[in-house]
Amino acid sequence: MAKFEVTNISSTEDSFFDRQERIDWWEQDKLKNATVLVVGAGAIGNETLKNLALLGVGNILITDFDDISKSNLSRTVLFRKGDQGKRKAQTAAERIKDMALSDDFKVNYFEGDVVWELGTGVYRHVDIVLGCLDNIETRIAVNKQCYLAGTPWIDAGIYELGLRINFYKPPHAPCYQCSLSPNQWQAARERYSCDDFKKQVTSEGKIPTVQIASALVGALQVQEAVKFLCGQEVPIGKQIYYQGKTNDFDVFDMPDNPDCWAHQASYDEIISLNLDTDILLKDFLKEVSKAENSGEGATLDFRGDRTFVKTMSCRDCQKEIEFYRPSFRIFDYESHCEECRSEGENNTENQTPAPKQTIGQFNLEKLKVNDERLLNFTLKELGIPILHVVAVQDTEGKYKYYELTGDKKKLF
Ligand SMILES: [Zn+2]
Ligand SMILES: [Zn+2]
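Above: inputs. Below: predicted complex with zinc ion.
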């Protein structure tokens, strides 16, 4: 009787990804080596993250600053009933780590306000950004950062049974901002008071929709991302649209606005510094004042990107209120001093901004004389986002742009 030798038949059946690798243009290694930023871990984000993990995308960064609520659970495949009150980004990261098939899968998360706390450098260090958002303000911010960083992004949106994805690839127009209407610009401000402070309660994110819409849009978004990562043709400047109520499916060209600044902004050169946002302002200024950087007398300049508020007049009694905080970390109610707040009769009628003392330029010698206290603030406390690219002006007025690359290890 012949003896059977069991040889190792290494069929591709051994691979988790056998079926997808049978697609002739598929490049699993490119997915494995790719880094994808997923902005938003709600209904769409859950679907998108699940798809990325199952497809074998190797490196994922998730951002969200919300908690899981009861009404999320009917649309979030990664969350369970017992997850109510937990953090969305962290929970989603844990679940997809469990789900991912390759051993060297990397996932990290950032819990913060994407609009104000996620720096341009984060966008520079990823291959593509997937927007899984429910509000215009964050889409504007992601779009701006992607164009500054030169990173493509796919915006997903849902409404009832309808959905769309839009593919943007810098420097090509159109960008997300090109076709925003005045009403949308106004809606983008709904989180803020007339003083540019945050309102405590907003009604954003409560759109009528179902899980099916997020599942479909997450699938389309990731499919386009995979095509892009594998070097296939993608619908740049186009919107893919599906209306489930009537089963209309279409691909549209998006309008391009020649006056839109967002897709025209970019940096000529970004210099990487091995510093992070935990550095004290004085130490940062000493570092950029070195001859090989911007030279003595260098000034950190926010260039209108954000506002640091030192003091403000109380809306009721005009008494000076001290803040020493960036405006995005100040709440609306704080524009009334504590005494006036406790008296409870706050003037909410007047919608003109109250007078403020702000600072947007930081120079070592000048601060030593005028406001020494600020020199002991960290860049983070000044409101500079993680892994950001900051502008520094030299004494001749020339700007250089420095990335705070020391933050990179916190995220990737
Ligand atoms: Zn544009
Ligand atoms: Zn007051």
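The two ends are 59 Å apart (CA to CA).
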